[in-house]
Design a protein that fits this description.
The protein is mostly helical. 48% of the residues lie in helices and 8% in strands.
Length: 204
């Protein structure tokens, strides 16, 4: 990342690097709607002014998580014991978080996960609702795939004449979409997460 810029100027690369999602609760720009997306300083400026414009210290975060995190700066010993915030840019989420199996709640798999969940309230009501919607959508995807495969396997010539052309076009179209999604998965994820309502030059 090009050095020498003020941190608000890194907004666009941050959006892309964090998949247009909050580094802490994972809500996307598209899902956030009226919730503002901001630039968080992992190490707060009040304690580490020298890292104010350091790209490696910047996180893309929703306003709620950013406010809850505030200027907390756990001391070295506390961090060694795991009392620090999860870093989405350096750590795998599954190492620190797991689903509890209870109403779409998450629980900490480590002290880091527990500390982050408790401090940022990652089981707040809005996030539980969001996870429910995501779960329902994920359950639909296999059914859609099964439908496409079944349609591809069905003998087109057994359909009524007036449906054959339409069915063939549908199969070809959906097969093309599925292939495109596999080849460009990053673009699909970015497109889902990104909100077109956010001005590319909007300040944090």
């Amino acid at each position: 990342m090009e050095p020498g810029k003020r941190y608000p100027e890194y907004r666009q690369p941050l959006r892309k690097d964090f998949f247009y999602s909050c580094a802490y609760c994972t809500i996307t720009e598209f899902e956030a709607q009226s919730i503002r997306m901001t630039i968080d300083h992992y190490e707060p400026r009040t304690e580490r002014a020298d890292l104010e414009n350091d790209y490696s210290n910047l996180m893309y975060a929703c306003d709620i998580c950013n406010e809850r995190k505030g200027n907390r700066y756990p001391p070295p010993q506390a961090r060694t014991d795991g009392y620090r915030f999860f870093r989405a840019d350096q750590e795998a989420r599954q190492e620190h978080f797991r689903h509890s199996g209870e109403a779409n709640r998450v629980e900490g798999a480590t002290t880091v996960g527990e500390f982050t969940i408790k401090t940022l309230d990652l089981n707040r009501e809005a996030l539980l609702g969001l996870r429910d919607i995501r779960e329902r959508m994920s359950k639909c995807l296999p059914l859609i795939a099964q439908g496409v495969m079944a349609l591809r396997a069905y003998p087109i010539d057994q359909l009524p004449p007036y449906l054959r052309t339409r069915a063939l076009k549908t199969v070809n179209s959906m097969t093309s979409v599925a292939t495109s999604m596999q080849e460009q998965i990053d673009d699909v994820l970015y497109g889902f997460a990104k909100s077109e309502l956010i001005d590319p030059d909007e300040a944090s």
